[in-house]
Structure formats: C-alpha cells, structure tokens
Amino acid sequence: MANVLDLRRRIRSVRNTRQITKAMKMVSAAKLRRAQERAVTARPYAAMLASVLESLKRRAEIYDPDTGELRHPLLLTRPEKRILLVVISGDKGFAGAFNTNIFKAAANFIRENDQREIDIEAIGRKGRDLFRRRYPAAQFTQAVEEGERPQRQRSSGIEVIGEHTGVLERLTYERVRELAEEIVARYTHEEIDAAYIVYNEFKSVIQQRVVVERVLPILEIGARQVAESREFTIEERERAAEAALSAGVSLYPKEAEAAQKQLEDETRNFGTAEVDYIYEEPPRDIFADVLPRYVTSQLYHATLESVAAEHAARMTAMDSATNNASEMIDSLTLTMNRVRQAAITKEIIEIVSGAAAI
Amino acid sequence: MADPIKVRLVTPDRILVDVTAEAVEIPAKTGYIEVLYGHAPLLSEVGTGEVRLHGGEADEQRFIVARGFVEVLPERVTILAETAEKPEEIDVATAREQMQHGEQIWNEAGEDPEKYAQANEIMAEATTRIEIAGER
C-alpha cells in the first residue's frame, strides 16, 4: 500500500494540473467570446455580397443568349476528376475531438472519392502534420516559363498541395484572400474540377457540426452546398453547455442576436431593391468581379467559424479535464486519509499490545 | 440644408461606419462620384481611393477603401469594401513595401496579362495610400 507521503505528492501534482487546465479553460473561454463576436460581425458583409450576386444574376445574362453557354468560368461544371479539398483544422491540440472529427470527415471524403485525384490544402498545423505524414507533397517543375502556370508532376492520387500554418492564430482577410484567389486561379485554369472545404461549423457553443461544403463550382448563389455533415451528439451538447456555463460564456447571445436580426434583414435587401439600377459598369463585369470575392468570403466565413469552434472545443475539453482532476483529488485524498488512519490505528494497537505484554 | 443620407461602410470584419451624411464621395472604378439624398439607384464597383463623408453626423470623415462595391438608393448608400482604413491609420512603410511588391510582380510578369493587371491593382492601392498619408 502506498504511503502517505507518496499520496500527498500525487495530490499536489494533480492539483497543479488542475490549475493549468482551469487556466486554459478560462483563456479559451475569453478567446471564444472574441471569436464569436468576430464571426457575428463578419456576417453582414457575406450576406450583402450574396445578395448583390443574387440580384445581378437576375439582371446580368449569365448564359450567352446565342450559344447558351455560361459566361463565367466559376459557374462551369465539369466532371469531377480532380478535386481540391481544403481541410481547416486547429493549430494546437488539447481540444478534445475537434481535430479528430475533422480528420475523420476528411478521410471519409477521401475514401468515397478514391477513384479521383485529390489535392489537399491544409489550414492549421494539426492538419498539416497529419496529411504530410500520410500523403506526398505536390511536385512542380522548377523552371516556369514566363506567363505560364507551373507544370505539375503527379506521383500519387492524393497529394498535399499547400499548407498554411499560423493563419488561424491571427486571422486576417488578406491571408484568406490570397488562398482563395489561388484556388480560383486553379479552377479557371482547369487544374481542378471542384473545391470542397471541410471545417467545423459553429452556430453556438452547443450547436456545432463538421461539414463538407462545396465552394466551387458555384451552382447556386446564397444556398450553401453542404455535401456531408455530422452534428453534435446529445452528450457532447450537454458537456459543452456545462462547460460554457461554468466559464461564463452565454449559450445564446440573445440581445446581440435581436440587433443582428434586424441588420440581417436589411442586408438581405442589399442590392435587391425592386428598382432599376444604373450600372456604372456592364453588369457582366461586376458579376465577374463579385464571383471570386464570393468564394473568398465563403472561405473566410469557414475559417472564422472554425476558429470559434476550436476554442469552444478546447474550453469543453479543459472543463472536463478540470472536473476529472477534481474527482481524482477527492479520491486520492480519501485514500490518503484511510492510509493515515490505518497507520495510526496500527501504531495504537502496537502500543497497547506492547503495554499488555509487560 | 440638404436632407441627410444614410451611409454604411462594411468590411469583411465588421460594419465600420453607420452614420448619416449630407454628401458622400465614392471612388467608383470609372471615377469619383458624389452622392446626395435622392440619388438614382446605382450599383457600381469601387476602385482604390478615398471615401469622403461630408456634413451630417459624419462631419468630414475620410476612409481609404479598395476592392469593393457600392449600392446607392435614394435614401441610403452602402459601400462594401475588402479593405477600409482611416487616413491616420496608414503606415507609409507598409505602403512602400506594397509598392515594391507590386513592382516586383510587374517586372516578373513576362507576358501574362493577368499578372500585369494584378500588379497594376497593387500599385494603384499603394500609390493612393502613400499620397493620402503624405497629405496629412
């Protein structure tokens, strides 16, 4: 049986761990609040962009009246032979099943499309580490002729084409735009036939799901093209709610939402008023300009949500860890007291029986 | 006094400005336009330049914007811009770097028209930034 001193040491060590997990939980809660706010304030822009596109779609001739062809390459659908998969994971661990869920969804997607060529674009350090171990990196010929796109030397069906770490920590629109423009360029140059993103969607602390969403080609504007999703289970939800409560994060930011709703109604009307607009440029030009921005805005939206979801997952995980540590301290304290008592009783028995022997 | 017009400047991160003003100058792609209350509905791309708000609550505010759209309705103006900043926030050093970056793309563009267009856009942005920063 362990002695009192050992038990006391273990208790102290668990207590230290608990302190750390508790601190991490509070930090995550603070970051979550900020990320949540960012995700909310970013909504009007995305909504307005979508409505402009929608109204333009009604006015601009997307199809050529003579040939019936689509006017913009991003609307073209081709048989999906080469797919780009953007996987948004976290930069750090300690977030429970957050990263695992993403990888599971990505792996499922890859398995279902194994007869196609898949390029992986990894955002987040965790995703990069995993995919780099598993799949080779894309190789390009070094010498690029002026004005030409680099030649691809494909060696395997699935390759990692790009990695972006540290983007999530200080998320800026600029960084996301660069990536989105690259994706759009690849699509228009017919290097890929479709683009999907796998990410954690964040509606609220207790409502999150892993989704596989198609961003290219754009089939329908405004509607999100979710190919696959996995919702939170009830237990996960309860866990998250508990964690949020103890960290002081509100589950439903109600007042904010009411104000937001009014704004969203207004933004939805952006560019859609039933009037004839004067167009400074031909509608088609505006259309061609908005489409790539729409892709960027979708990608940005996905990263923002993923960041919020990551912090929420970490907060929940750390709350569980803190609870487990508390339980462990309790049970260790109990054992320690028992051991101490047993030792005292033994000593008394020894003294008493020793005295009796005299 | 002219009727005030509602002005909203929206960036991907947040709604930057939501005020009323008497007049708004907007750098449309084909040139600056000025909008007063009762303007005919208009939809246009926004190039790189300065949005100026005059009068009303706004009372002389200026913003550097780039890559966006504007919707004008008789009583409301909404500007969507990927970047928008106040003149005093501009960092000349960063703008110079941006300029160099643009020049570099220009020099390496070869025969790719897309690259030239991209370089032009970057340089135009940088020029506006440097000019406006120099004014203050």
The H-and-E topology of chain B, N to C, reads as EEEEEEEEHH
Which CATH architecture of chain A?
Answer: 3-Layer(aba) Sandwich
Specify the structural class of chain B.
alpha+beta
| Uncertain residue ranges of chain A | none
Radius of gyration of chain B: 16 Å
β-sheet strand percentage of chain B: 35-45%
Helix content of chain B: 25-40%
Tally of strands of chain B: 8
- Count, helices of chain A: 8
How many helical stretches of chain B? 2
Mean pLDDT of chain A: 80
Number of domains as seen in the coordinates of chain B: 2
Tell me what the structure shows.
The complex is a heterodimer of chains A (358) and B (136). Chain A is of the alpha/beta class and 358 residues long. Chain A has a single domain (4-331), classed as 3-Layer(aba) Sandwich (Pyruvate Kinase, Chain: A, domain 1), CATH 3.40.1380. Helix content of chain A is 56%, strand content 15%. Chain A is built from eight helices and nine strands. Chain A has helices at residues 4-41, 43-59, 98-112, 125-134, 173-188, 234-247, 254-268, 283-357; strands at 82-88, 117-123, 139-140, 152-153, 158-164, 194-204, 207-216, 225-231, 278-279. In chain A, strands 5-2-1-6-7-8 form a six-stranded mixed β-sheet. Chain A has a two-stranded antiparallel sheet with strand order 3-4. Chain B is α+β, with helices and mostly antiparallel strands and 136 residues long. Chain B folds into two domains: 5-87, F0F1 ATP synthase delta/epsilon subunit, N-terminal (ATP Synthase, domain 1, Sandwich), CATH 2.60.15.10; 91-135. Chain B has helices at 92-108, 113-135; strands at 5-10, 15-21, 23-28, 31-36, 42-46, 49-54, 61-73, 76-85. In chain B, strands 1, 2, 3, 4, 5, 6, 7 and 8 form an eight-stranded mixed β-sheet that branches. In chain B, strand 7 (61-73) and strand 8 form a beta hairpin. In chain B, helix 1 runs antiparallel to helix 2 (113-135). In chain B, 34% of the residues are buried. Classes of the chains: A alpha/beta (358), B alpha+beta (136). Strand 9 of chain A pairs parallel with strand 5 (42-46) of chain B, so a sheet runs across the interface.
